[in-house]
Design goal:
Blueprint (H helix, E strand, L loop, with lengths): L1 H5 L3 E3 L8 H20 L9 H10 L4 H29 L7 H23 L4 H12 L8 H9 L6 H32 L13 E3 H26 L29 H8 L4 H13 L4 H4 L11 H21 L7 H39 L1
Antiparallel strand pairs: 1-2
Helix pairs in contact: 2-4, 2-8, 2-9, 3-4, 4-5, 4-9, 5-6, 5-8, 10-11, 10-13, 13-14
GO molecular function: metal ion binding; oxidoreductase activity; quinol-cytochrome-c reductase activity
Membrane topology: Multi-pass membrane protein
Keywords: Electron transport, Heme, Iron, Membrane, Metal-binding, Mitochondrion, Mitochondrion inner membrane, Respiratory chain, Transmembrane, Transmembrane helix, Transport
Length: 376
């Protein structure tokens, strides 16, 4: 099996470094599980002791600061690689037939990774942990009739308290192992049809063994990642975190500006852009789950954007808009950020309709050209 997957697996000969982020994601998942299990040996899931247990890890446990900073920063790298991996799939049409199942499993992995990241953010039990958990779990109260009951069930009481922290810790520990199972299914689905290639055409006649061509290419990516990670962990460990999380959680003091971790900010901006709470929650979840519809929205005969100039333009507009949403999510709820967030949210959803329209127009032009050539 190992020979089939990582040695003699026939791979397109023109894969770029963008195809290496899948293996990087596997690496960081293993790193998160190892560092997470180690941290769990010293962490206490109790609201009276959680914050101090994290400080104990940082100050008293041998190399505890290194393990904790590695775990926290690799979580950010996990999402950086995940967004690049998804972006590469969108650009090169990796979601099209016959890889619909592969894409769908990947989207499920994305959703579970976001859930795992949110649960982990609450564990240090700082101010942002408490209030972020309070705000996000309160979104469930928007569900008609049973919302309040669901929120109290998640909390294990009438507020974010000790029972909530215990539940979040248990789930945060469990979900990575479920992710491992989904990653295995993802790899099985990938192995069935093989990787897509940058040209979007069949590469059956031009394939090379995975080893040594892509194993060494992946190792180069690993070394570059370790270099950047080392610089951040040793010199800028709090670059991607929030300073308020170094203040012990206090339910009587609300932070000036509550915001989730940076990797949730685009979806947080979509949530805030809609005044109605229920519609905001629906839009936030729809912004993620709409990725499942991509194989059915893009019906273009040409796979990927490599030979589609207009598709290239709207793809980079989508990326720019996504970054803008992330910036808006970190800003206060005031003008002009409100109106910019609303316009960006509208474009986010409109983009998927534009992709479908572009595919229809391209297919129509292709058929007209074929008819014209036939008549000629």
């Amino acid at each position: 099996m190992a020979n089939s997957y990582i040695i003699d697996s026939p791979s397109p000969s023109n894969l770029t470094y963008l195809w290496g982020y899948g293996s990087l994601l596997g690496l960081v998942l293993v790193m998160q599980i190892i560092t997470g299990v180690t941290l769990a040996m010293h962490y206490t899931p109790n609201i009276e002791m959680a914050f101090n247990s994290v400080e104990h890890i940082m100050r008293d446990v041998n190399n505890g600061w290194l393990i904790r900073y590695t775990h926290a920063n690799v979580a950010s790298f996990f999402f950086i690689f995940l967004y690049i991996h998804i972006g590469r799939g969108l650009y090169y049409g990796s979601y099209t037939r016959p890889r619909i199942l592969l894409w769908s499993i990947g989207v499920i992995i994305f959703v579970l990774t976001m859930a795992t990241g949110f649960l982990g953010y609450t564990l240090p039990w700082g101010q942002m942990s408490l209030w972020g958990a309070t705000v996000i779990t309160n979104l469930l109260s928007a569900i008609p009739w049973m919302g309040v009951n669901i929120v109290e069930f998640v909390w294990g009481g009438f507020s974010v308290d000790n029972a909530t922290l215990n539940r979040f810790f248990s789930l945060h520990y469990l979900l990575p192992f479920i992710l491992v199972g989904l990653v295995v299914l993802h790899l099985v689905a990938l192995h069935h049809h093989g990787s897509n290639n940058p040209l979007g055409v069949s590469a059956n006649g031009d394939r090379v063994p995975f080893h040594p061509y892509y194993t060494f290419k992946d190792i180069v990516g690993f070394l570059a990642f370790f270099l950047v990670l080392s610089i951040i962990v040793f010199y800028m460990p709090n670059l991607l975190g929030h300073s308020d999380n170094y203040i012990p959680a206090n339910p009587l003091v609300t932070p000036t500006h509550i915001q989730p971790e940076w990797y949730f900010l685009p979806y947080y901006a979509i949530l805030r852009s809609i005044p109605n709470k229920l519609l905001g929650v629906i839009a936030m979840f729809a912004a993620i789950l709409i990725l499942l519809a991509m194989p059915f929205l893009d019906e273009s005969r040409i796979r990927g954007s490599q030979f589609r100039p207009f598709m290239k333009i709207i793809f980079w507009l989508f990326i720019s808009n996504f970054v803008l949403l992330g910036w808006i999510g970190a800003k206060p709820v005031s003008d002009p950020y409100i109106i910019i967030g609303q316009l960006s949210s509208i474009f986010y959803f409109a983009w998927f309709a534009i992709v479908a329209m572009v595919g229809i127009i391209e297919n129509t032009l292709y058929q007209m050209r074929q008819l014209w050539l036939g008549a000629k």
